Amino acid sequence: MKQSIGAKPLAFPTPAWVVGTYDMNGKPNGMTAAWGGICCSNPPCISVSLRKATYSYAGIMENRAFTVSIPSEAYVKQADYFGITSGRDEDKFEATCLTPVRSELVPAPYVGEFPVILECKLLHNFEIGLHTLFVGEILDIKADESVLDEKGNPDIEKIRPVIYNPGSRDYYGIGCNLGKAFSIGKDC
Q1: Residue 58 has what DSSP assignment?
Q2: DSSP 87
Q3: For 81-104, what is each residue's pLDDT tens digit?
Q4: Distance (Å, rounded) from C-alpha 146 to C-alpha 67?
């Protein structure tokens, strides 16, 4: 029997993304966000939700753009740091010894050491309540050659992205391959 646990911001999996912006003075900033995902296929878009109180919120609104840097498991500590400190008070890139790289497509930085980057122009923003939902059109995805498969696509087992569990507030890695999507269910 299922037990009710109430209405909570809980879904699985949730990413641990670092959303990159520039502040009003052009200083690179990033914050870890877990409320995000793909929201459209054509045009390719992602959504990410931030609170107005965050320093990154103003950067996205000002520049109408953001990046998403997807950390590998090797950078879980740095990704967490980007989420527990404010760019108002610290240079997070300097503190973590990570490299801010200026996007050539949008006015936003990304984390040079992270294996996959999404460069997005802001299409929409919707105030939902405590959070504002930002919809960004993906203009380009950059990936380290070392994480690409033989067809040139990012390989999740090579990327080893960080996943966040909002219930326990823990980070996890990925599990094993369970089967081919749009195929494994044909045998039911």
Answers
A1: H
A2: T
A3: 999 999 999 999 999 999 999 999
A4: 21
What is the residue whose two structure tokens read 């870890």?
32
Q: CATH no. for residue 45?
A: 2.30.110.10
* Closest to 79 (Cα-Cα) out of 24, 20, 132: 20
Amino acid (one-letter) located at 126 = F
Residues 43-52: tens digit of each pLDDT: 999 999 999 9
Q: Is residue 6 part of a domain?
A: no
How big is the chain, counted in residues?
A: 188
The one-letter amino acid at 184? I
Are the beta carbons of 27 and 109 closer than 8 angstroms?
Answer: no
The β-bridge relationship of strands 109-111 and 163-165 is: unpaired
The number of folded domains in the chain is 1
Q: Give the pair of three-digit tokens for residue 133.
A: 């939902």
Contact assessment for residue 28 and residue 59, using Cβ atoms and an 8 Å cutoff:
no
Q: In sequence order, what DSSP letters do the residues of 124-155 get, joined into one string? A: EEEE-SSEEEEEEEEEEEEE-GGGB-TTS-B-
Structural domain harbouring 95:
14-187
CB atoms within 10 A of CB 57: 19
In a domain, 127, yes or no: yes
**Residue among 166, 163, 146 nearest 155 (CA):** 146
Residue located via tokens 């040139």: 152
In tens, the pLDDT along 25-38 reads 999 999 999 999 99
